[in-house]
Input
Amino acid sequence: MVISALLVCFTLLFTGAPPLHAAEESDSNLLELYYEPSDLAVSAATRSPRPLSRSAEDITVVTAAEIEAQNAHNLAEVLNRVPGVQVDLRGGLVTDYSLLGSSFRHVLVLVDGVSMSNLSDNAAVIAQIPVGNIERIEIVKGPASTAWGSALGGVINVITKSPRETAIPGGSASFSGGERGTRDAQGELTGTMGRLGYYLSGGNVRSDGFRPHNASDSNNLYAKLLWSLRDKGSIRFTINYLKGAAGEGVFPLPARLLPILSEGTVTSDLETSRLTSTLALNYHLTERLALDLALKGSLLDADSRRYFLTSGDTFQLVDNKEEAAGASALLTWRQGLHTVVGGMDFDHGHTKTSSDTFTLLGTFPAPSEGTNDKWGFFLNDTIAWERFTLTPALRYDRTSRDGEFWSQSLGATVNLTDRTLLRANYARGYSLSTINFDPAFTNERIWAIHAGIETTEIPFLWLKAGWFRNTARDVAVNGERLRLLKEGFEVEARTTPFFDTWLSLGYVFIDARNADTDRRLQEIPRQTWDLGLHYDDRTFRGALLGHYIWWNEPSTRGGIAFNARYDDFIWDLNLGWKAYKGQNAEAELFFTGHNLFNGRQYTNEIFVNPSRWFEGGLRIKW
Output
């Protein structure tokens, strides 16, 4: 069906359909009430900018201004406020996350187009990614394999800030401090010298931790250079370095080992560093045809030392090193009704994990090593005609470890009125197996359908609602390979500002079942709530935010009681006051009260969430 649709689309293209609304020239006024004009284009779904109102996929955009209003320190904290993203904040660098119930193994995390997901287990250390240099985050909820390959559950696409287009340097500096030795110092500098634009940022975040042995210390450095080719495009170079160390908490020994070993509690330290770099060309071959070329590379070094808490004797060292390099080439052709994007990706990845065990503990990963080479070829079209948009897409992937994959999607949008937009999307996707660790993780495939509505027909209210259903097969769950059926809906709403005050609501419901037995599954979050009361008069701002997840956890796992508790909303209060506003500079004092009512939200008593605590700081921009 999808291939037939593609043939129809390209037939229309080459037979010269009437040149009505090109996708980049038309957009709905519907979204302009809630987004800045620059935020109305997204690229995560097709690899090329496309109006958000012409996107059939379920996409959420988080802007730099929204990130700043949250007083957030890292990507994990920001995603924790996005409806449909379930984040288990465990402190330090350890964070579990899922997207509409899809495990982190199924979610691709990108920064500047470079994967931050490990080759070994497909996890990304999202608590290590700073947010001060982020321009926007695009979150595609649902399969995104037609654009990116292995992305069964979706994509979190982080786009960093671009250089300021003035010769006068600009920048910012911020510092915040709070309880338990928590502090965050960040700075950025940006400007343009002739045809060269530059953006530089760096910082440090540390904390003594809010649980036993949970201190953390992270450093980040980032640089982006942009050479203008005038009206022909640009050449971009980026380098990103992240380094962090954290205690992972205190853990009991397995009961079976207590008679053998004298000590009953252990802990571990994690040190991780990642270096990524890109070199990219954007070149306008003609008025309607653009070429994008990119080279990328990544190095990861993660060491974990596990030892007895009392004696300090090490019983295991795990060292994981990864190297990845790749390239992509992409053509975007805008002609009449169509925006056609075609391209190819190549990625080479190598990972090696060594493990030295000094005791009888035999439940940890054995040394392993693996390589995967991936080729991907993709083609998609955005056909925009009057109030309608059709978006067929197709991708072929060939991998050296896991064979071949075909991914297809077909989406449509309809502007019923100037104030109501309908979306529907069908997609097939996959996720690759993990190279190391659990052999039960194998290639997993999914088909999914999503339908939704976005409207401002109700006075003083923006409403977005959607329904989704997907079936995934060969999904590894507790050592079994299951066929999963997930169905649910999500609702987002926001009131029009009244006296600079507005309300927000996000709700997501997920019902997950074994598709063969119809048995309801646990360990997949069932309900998520986000509530907000906001105020912003451009001098004072404040937000009272409530967050709740029904984690749907079993009382025990593997015979061990985890004693999860998640009966409470977690309420945070963010405040800001622009104490100085000049023509070229401003200074803001900000404050955050975390978990104001000492609520409990954790899936394992080992990772008890922090009680009430406070922090405050100063941000200067020029």
In short: The first strand starts at residue 41 and ends at 42.
